[in-house]
Amino acid sequence: MNISFSVCMSVYHGDVAAYFKDALDSIFNQTLLPDELVLVVDGQVGDDINRVISGIEDNAIVRIIRLEKNSGHAIARQTGLDAAQTEYVAIMDSDDLALNDRFEKQMAYIQEHPEVDALGGQIHEFIGNQDNVVGKRIVPLTDVKIKAYMKSRCPMNLVTMMLKRDSVEKVGGYIDWYCEEDYYLWVRMAEAGMTFANLPDNLVNVRVGKEMYQRRGGFRYFKSEAKLQKYMWKNGVIGFPRYIYNVAGRFAVQVAMPNSVRSLVFQKLFRD
After folding, report:
1. Main-chain phi, psi angles of 245, to 5 degrees
2. What's the 3-state SS for the chain?
3. N or C end of the chain, less CB within 10 A?
4. Measured torsion, CA atoms of residues 139, 142, 144, 146, in degrees rounded to the nearest 10
5. In this structure, which long-range contacts are made by residues 215-222, counting pairs with CB atoms below 8 Å and at least 24 apart in sequence?
6. pLDDT tier at 69 (50, 70, 90 boundaries)?
């Protein structure tokens, strides 16, 4: 049984052209190619990004959608999902590198487990080149363990996701929520009784840097996370004690902690 799938990627003016090209190459070099690559150009981009895009425009599986202005991750991802013409959609970021058997492994699993609505996997985080691994984000494998983990932290690695498109649409798709639109989506899918799984394999090498840890701190980031925790409490996903515990822990890490210490905490405590 052949199951069709798309890859959705967005690119914007802040992306690095060389990293963008490497990310695209990691898709085109897969052992199982997607039926289509939906590339959303999120607003105006520079000549270097446009040159990379020009180099793939004639590829038969590529469809390019250009947004007039930068709209952010949630709208760009939802635009790609809306445009996809396949049953399943893989998420890919414009500076990360998919291992060459990522899609083959994911589609083999889905063929064996068609009840799964959202399938992810593990990631390795690197700085500079892929051999310089500075962290691994290990997430639970089974639906039961994923939903238990969800009560405290985001249980899926977004850039590894293979999603059943209709299931995502049933819960309203990607909805803008500052830095938390993926976690919010998983919570809503769990509330709807949908099924999750993660493969034990590393599927994507994720490019990181010091600025990543800066983005994961500050009062705006904390407010967004605290608001999501409140949503989870109000909707019965977590109880009040867990809500207080989660918010207090996030305040300590995201507001009270200096960036240098936060970087160490994320690498040593929140990663493998």
Report:
1. -60, -45
2. CCCCEEEEEEECCCCCHHHHHHHHHHHHCCCCCCCEEEEEEECCCCHHHHHHHHCCCCCCCEEEEEECCCCCHHHHHHHHHHHCCCCEEEECCCCCEECCCHHHHHHHHHHHCCCCCEEEEEEEEECCCCCCEEEEECCCCCHHHHHHHCCCCCCCCHHHCEEEHHHHHHCCCCCCCCCCHHHHHHHHHHHCCCCEEEEEEEEEEEECCHHHHHHCCCHHHHHHHHHHHHHHHHCCCCCHHHHHHHHHHHHHHHHHCCHHHHHHHHHHCCCC
3. N
4. 20
5. 215/179, 216/179, 216/254, 216/262, 216/266, 217/253, 217/254, 217/255, 217/257, 217/259, 217/262, 218/254, 218/255, 219/255, 220/178, 221/178, 221/179, 221/254, 222/250, 222/251, 222/254, 222/255
6. very high
User: Quick check: 43 and 68 in contact, CB under 8 A?
Assistant: yes
Is the pLDDT at 47 greater than 80? The verdict is yes
Mean pLDDT of the chain: 91
Residue 257 scores a pLDDT above 80: no
Q: What gap in Å lies between CA 223 and CA 58, rounded to an integer?
A: 44
Q: What is the pLDDT averaged over residues 208-220?
A: 67
Q: Which residues, at least 6 apart from 129, have a Cβ–Cβ distance to it below 8 Å?
A: none
Over pLDDT 70: what percentage of the chain?
90
Which residue matches tokens 């291992």? Answer: 99
- Bigger pLDDT: 208 vs 258: 208
